[in-house]
């Protein structure tokens, strides 16, 4: 399973570099958002 904290840090940095102030909100949905992710969970 991926380390979601590291993945989100990298993703947010890329978003910020690419879109600057045009992104206002980023959030996790589904099993990752609920803290129920498993090896077969996808990112929503």
Please give a structural write-up.
The chain is an all-alpha fold and 44 residues long. The protein has 2 helices and no strands. The longest helix is centred in the N-terminal third of the chain and has 16 residues, at 4-19. The radius of gyration is 12 Å and the shape is elongated. The mean pLDDT is 88.
Mean pLDDT over the full residue set: 88
How many whole angstroms does the radius of gyration measure?
12 Å
| Beta-strand content bin | under 5%
Structural class: mainly alpha
Percentage of residues assigned to helices: 40-55%
Note the total helix count. 2
Order of helices and strands: HH
* Cα-to-Cα separation, first versus last residue: 15 Å
> What would you call the shape?
elongated
- Uncertain runs: none
Please outline the major beta sheet: none
Q: What is the count of β-strands? A: 0
Summarize this, please?
With 44 residues, this protein is an all-alpha fold. The protein is built from two helices and no strands.
Write the layout of secondary structure elements.
Blueprint (H helix, E strand, L loop, with lengths): L3 H16 L10 H5 L10
What are the main properties of this structure?
single chain, 44 residues, mainly alpha
